[in-house]
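2024-03-11 09:14:02 INFO worker-7 job=invfold-0412 stage=load source=structure_tokens
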């Protein structure tokens, strides 16, 4: 069984809640769910698979704790580590919806991480998101501001993708 660690950056608690929901779906213990504001990037070393989650702030900016955490991760070699990404945002910020997902993906490109668990775009309504990389949505995007009723179903479906992809 692969060891999964969840690392989240959250300013007002939404991404934390989603991280906990993902943990339940994947049977990840609470001690393996980490706020990136209080752990060092090297702690990903203890996991085979790392789930990174962060909200988007400003005009499409990565949540600040996660931005610092990613600075550290970029210096590591993540070869053979499976990485899945999720983010929380607001679809009414229609040109920058969940940009955090795309920023994490792009910034970790040179670490040799193995990205898994892209998600579909069904039921979303926005103009642009950096999470869309050449037509592929590279992670789970959650809008708890406008569509909290969709969150559990989206989380469950994404966790099913992860369960299928982890080898
Ligand atoms: C000032 C401000 C700027 C925001 N900018 C964006 C944005 O550019 N794109 C987006 O998708 N969401 C944006 N959001 C929405 C937040 O990402 C959303 O509320 C999220 O759920 C917060 O998660 P957190 O509590 O885990 O930090 C913004 C919210 C605020 C208040």
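2024-03-11 09:14:09 INFO worker-7 stage=emit residues=167
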């Amino acid at each position: 069984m692969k060891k999964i660690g969840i690392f989240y950056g959250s300013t007002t608690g939404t991404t934390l809640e989603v991280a906990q929901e993902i943990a339940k779906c994947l049977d990840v213990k609470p001690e393996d769910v980490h706020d990136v504001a209080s752990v060092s990037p090297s702690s990903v070393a203890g996991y085979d698979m790392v789930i990174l989650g962060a909200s988007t702030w400003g005009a499409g900016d990565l949540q600040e704790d996660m931005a610092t955490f990613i600075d550290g991760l970029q210096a590591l070699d993540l070869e053979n580590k499976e990485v899945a990404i999720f983010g929380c945002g607001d679809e009414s910020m229609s040109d920058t919806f969940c940009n955090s997902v795309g920023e994490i993906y792009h910034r970790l490109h040179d670490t040799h991480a193995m990205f898994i668990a892209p998600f579909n775009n069904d039921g979303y309504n926005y103009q642009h998101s950096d999470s869309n990389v050449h037509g592929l949505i590279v992670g789970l995007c959650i809008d708890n501001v406008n569509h909290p009723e969709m969150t559990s179903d989206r989380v469950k479906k994404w966790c099913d993708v992860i369960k299928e992809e982890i080898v």
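2024-03-11 09:14:09 INFO worker-7 stage=report msg="The chain has a mean pLDDT of 96."
2024-03-11 09:14:10 INFO worker-7 job finished
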